[in-house]
Write a structure and sequence with these properties.
The complex is a heterodimer of chains A (about 325) and B (about 625). Chain A is built from twelve helices and 15 strands. With about 325 residues, chain A is of the alpha/beta class.
Chain lengths: ~325, ~625
């Protein structure tokens, strides 16, 4: 079955003065999927979501959302979208029930019974003032408000950032259940990789306003890997080769503990990577003798490095590799 | 959608709106009562006052609730995330507040029209004119407060600057704001102009309202509403300091401009003048006393002022204009108002048989110093020096003799000290004056300066007076700061090397010597004590009942009740506004004052008895009392 996109952006850009918050962003979210929008703090996630919610107008680019195409999302589209913002700015004097009644006035499809059910499921006291609710309760209330009108698309802007681990887990489970049960498309931004990894079908990684990756978690783990090298034995080998003949010796076997990695210095790995079209992302983490490279899964099958040198990475490592500064070494 | 927003606003602000409605109702009825009591020509005067006072305050509160609270609480961010266009949110708020206040004003307007039908001719055109004035004004003022609400953290500073600007424009630049736009709509013709629409004022007001509305929407919509959101953030400490400095700077700039504005010279046709060395004295008796008498007085005053200028080392003195006023007692002098001109305008009866030139000069010198210092010398911390100096200057010749202090002043000072004088009284001099009376207080202050001159030396005393009575310090915040940095005790120590605590102790010991010396004479001066209470004649009208004891009873059996009505603030009451009831002890210690008093007014009063020994009135002490049972 072909995936039907519910949300697409085309070269979406937004600047605050000289600061380019979002830079030609093009993403695609298909119907029924949970899309994890990963990025460091200040990467441009909230700015993107504010454009998607029609709160700010993009400087350039186009948004396709549900049956709308254009630059700015209007009231009609917003009625079909549920939104939980990063900070909950509810009226402190309202109770959850009063807040529900107020918000109902803006959504023709509002389901009072569903809102009551959600409050009950989420364990939000309906008659307590918002000012007396904890941070976690407020987020849950935000989710109940976002879901009570049966939105076709749910947009969550780092909703769990203020929650404790248990609250975060509970919240994610609810989101996941809602998405699976109602085939609800969910666009979910976060800087916490583990929670995105847990719930997202696909991820988009944003860095400095630019999209660094978009695809499934498995696909990115196939494409971004670590190549471990051994500089010490390689230096010895290179010294011998240069002294004796000036050309590489194919059957040279250095006496190191790791026979597979020996003979591959960092320089050699990078040269081979460049020759075979691998993209260098960064060196290994800490003191690790490794480089992180990106290539298509098929390229990794025919990689010019021994298999033992190539290691898979966690999504967190990949995220850090993509969201950190790229070296000019290559 | 809009209904939900309106319901939300009503639920959020219902209590304040209800309270505002109630207070506006009460305020309106009060103003109506005032208009009825003062018998204004039209009941619609109450509406004019209502719009100028209570409605303005209500709009301030209403816009604060509708706008400031929303943006400061950041709840507008929640609204923005809902399927609601931002402009609709702003427009709903704007219209809701406007409809609410317009409804309240319409009720007041309607009631007045109903009530006015009996006594006034209310033609359709007249009602249209008044309605146009009312609603155009309301729209403009409401839009103003709405914009101010959107200016968030800067609004308070802007209110302050706005009020200062209005005061500056009106008083310094003489711009008649009452003739401009919304102010002109509520001018004196509001309740009386029946035929002509104030077209210009209406256009200006509506144009201004349109600009303000455009500004309000601009602020709330431009850059996706981020401007209004940013303005609603709380001020940082640095910003507070910066804004305070700006406001202060504005204040100083206004006062500097005010100082540098040269006023027109006062024209006094038919006067004789003595103008020399920068001192101008003009005298006119409009031909009643003859040019020679006028010239003599001008010469005497000029000589006195010239000597004063040299003694206190003053750079300049204001021109003095003396006008004969034949109906005044010879020992009574009045200050006139010089609108838009500079100088001291004095009315006195200098042809009277009981005219005392020395007494007049003592009074005049004080007034000249007050005007020259732009009233800064009237400020309390150093006020006693000014009061004492007038007598000190007029009697300076007596300092040369061994014990030549004028007997009357000695007696007054001894009597004043007898009534009690403490170190703190010098800092709260106005309270002391109220307690013992102006003449006695001045004599007490004079005795202090005499002690300084005789004990520390005349030259040191002169240095002290020069330092305290400087007239070149502005009478604004700079003057306040200067006075704080240079209090009189410090100046006394610097110039005469006398510690403040020693000064009071030694001075009182000096006066105690006079007290012993004059004890016999002072025993005959009456001590007064008494009270005043009010009895209702009607809900608004009261009579005053006095009870007084005097020990001893004055030989002539006469006493006076001096009284005046205090305005809103506790400012000094000019002598011309003090009424005097002359009464007789033979009628008994209790009785009723002639006349009636309005409920809730503040009466400032004292009993007074003329003492021939002291040559002045002794008082029971001025008191402020509200007219109520």
């Amino acid at each position: 079955m072909n995936a039907i996109p519910v949300l697409r952006t085309h070269d979406l850009s937004l600047s605050y003065g000289r600061l380019r918050a979002v830079d030609r962003l093009s993403i695609s979210v298909d119907q029924g999927e949970i899309y994890g929008f990963l990025g460091r703090n200040g990467a441009g996630k909230t700015s993107t979501i504010r454009m998607l919610m029609g709160i700010v107008r993009p400087d350039a680019g186009r948004i396709e959302m549900l049956d709308y195409q254009g630059k700015r999302i209007g009231v009609q589209q917003k009625r079909r979208v549920g939104y939980v913002s990063q900070e909950q700015h509810f009226y402190p004097w309202m109770t959850a029930r009063v807040l529900g009644k107020f918000v109902a006035g803006f959504y023709p499809a509002w389901d009072h019974a569903e809102f009551g059910r959600l409050l009950s499921v989420l364990d939000v006291p309906p008659d307590r003032r918002v000012s007396h609710l904890s941070g976690g309760m407020r987020v849950k209330l935000g989710l109940a408000l976002a879901l009570a009108h049966h939105p076709a698309l749910l947009i969550l802007d780092e909703p769990t950032s203020g929650l404790d681990p248990v609250g975060r887990r509970e919240f994610l489970e609810i989101v996941q259940r809602q998405a699976r049960r109602h085939q609800r498309t969910t666009f979910f931004s976060s800087h916490l990789v583990d929670e995105v990894e847990r719930v997202a079908d696909r991820v988009g990684i944003l860095h400095r306003g630019q999209l660094r990756y978009e695809g499934s978690v498995e696909a990115i783990q196939e494409s971004v890997r670590k190549v471990v090298y051994d500089d010490e034995s390689a230096e010895v080998m290179e010294a011998i080769v240069v002294t004796e003949s000036g050309a590489p010796v194919d059957d040279f076997r250095p006496p190191s503990p790791s026979a597979e990695t020996s003979g591959f210095s960092r320089r050699r790995v990078l040269e081979l990577a460049a020759t075979h079209g691998f993209e260098y992302l960064r060196d290994g983490f800490g003191e690790e003798r490794a480089v992180i490279l990106r290539a298509a899964a098929s390229q990794w099958q025919a990689a010019p490095f021994p298999r033992a040198m190539v290691q898979r990475l966690s999504l967190e490592d990949i995220f850090i590799a993509l969201a950190s500064e790229v070296s000019d070494d290559l | 959608m809009i209904a939900a927003l309106i319901i939300k606003e009503l639920r959020q602000h219902w209590l304040v709106m209800l309270l505002l409605g109630f207070l506006l109702g009460v305020g309106f009825l009060l103003l109506l009562l005032v208009v009825l009591l003062t018998e204004e020509g039209s009941l619609l005067e109450a509406l004019r006052l209502f719009l100028q006072t209570f409605v303005v305050l209500a709009l301030l509160v209403l816009c604060h609730r509708l706008v400031v609270q929303e943006y400061q609480g950041k709840t507008q961010l929640f609204l923005e995330a809902l399927p609601l266009a931002r402009w609709r949110m702003v427009a709903t708020k704007f219209l809701l507040g406007l409809v609410l206040i317009a409804a309240i004003v319409s009720v007041a307007f309607g009631l007045l029209l109903l009530a006015g039908q009996r006594g006034e001719v209310l033609t359709g055109r007249f009602v249209q004119i008044v309605a146009a004035r009312v609603y155009a004004y309301l729209l403009c003022v409401y839009a103003f407060f709405f914009v101010m609400g959107l200016l968030g953290r800067y609004r308070v500073a802007l209110y302050v600057v706005g009020i200062l600007s209005v005061a500056f424009l009106e008083t310094t630049l003489k711009v008649e704001l009452a003739r401009f736009g919304p102010f002109a709509l509520l001018n004196e013709q509001f309740a009386y102009e029946r035929n002509v629409f104030p077209v210009t004022a209406l256009f200006v007001t509506l144009g201004l309202a349109a600009m303000l509305i455009a500004t309000a929407f601009g602020l709330s919509l431009v850059r996706e509403g981020s401007v209004a959101t940013m303005l609603a953030e709380r001020m940082s400490h640095r910003e507070k300091v910066f804004v305070s400095l700006l406001v202060l700077g504005f204040l100083v700039a206004c006062s500097v401009h005010d100082e540098k504005t040269e006023k027109d010279p006062f024209e006094m046709p038919g006067s004789v003048a003595k103008e020399q060395s920068g001192i101008t004295v003009k005298v006119t008796s409009v031909g009643k006393s003859g040019a020679n008498a006028d010239q003599r007085l001008a010469e005497v005053v000029w000589t006195e002022l010239d000597a004063l200028r040299q003694y206190l080392q003053l750079s300049e003195l204001p021109p003095v204009f003396i006008v004969l006023r034949g109906d005044l007692d010879g020992d009574r002098y009045e200050r006139g108002e010089l609108d838009g001109a500079e100088g001291v305008l004095v009315r006195a009866n200098f042809t009277s048989t009981d005219w005392n030139q020395q007494d007049f000069l003592a009074w005049l010198v004080r007034e000249v110093l007050v005007v020259a210092s732009d009233e800064r010398l009237l400020w309390e911390p150093r006020r006693w020096v000014l009061d004492g100096f007038a007598l000190f200057w007029a009697n300076r010749a007596t300092l040369q003799t061994a014990d030549g202090a004028p007997r009357t002043l000695v007696l007054r000072a001894a009597y004043g000290a007898q009534l009690g004088l403490k170190r703190e009284d010098l800092d709260t001099w106005l309270a002391y004056r109220q307690r013992v009376g102006d003449e006695i207080a001045s004599a007490v202050a004079w005795s202090g300066l005499v002690w300084v001159a005789r004990t520390c030396g005349e030259a040191q005393c002169q240095q002290f007076l020069r330092a305290v009575l400087r007239t070149d310090i502005p009478s604004d915040v700079r003057g306040w700061w200067y006075d704080r940095r240079h209090p009189w005790p410090l100046l006394l120590q610097q110039t005469c090397d006398v510690a403040p605590e020693d000064f009071t102790r030694l001075w009182l010991a000096y006066v105690a010597h006079w007290q012993r010396e004059t004890a016999d004479e002072l025993s005959g001066v009456p001590r007064l004590d008494g009270a005043l209470h009010f009895e209702a004649l009607s809900p608004m009208t009261y009579k005053a009942v006095y009870s007084l004891t005097a020990d001893p009873v004055p030989p002539n059996g006469r006493f006076q009740v001096l009284h005046g009505v205090l305005a809103g603030l506790d400012v000094e009451l000019p002598r011309s506004q003090v009424a005097c009831e002359d009464l007789d002890f033979t009628d008994g210690p209790h009785g009723e004052l002639p006349g009636t008093f309005t409920w809730s007014t503040r009466l400032y009063w004292t009993y007074a008895v003329r003492s021939e020994v002291l040559g002045c009135d002794v008082v029971s002490g001025w008191r402020c009392q509200e007219v109520r049972p």
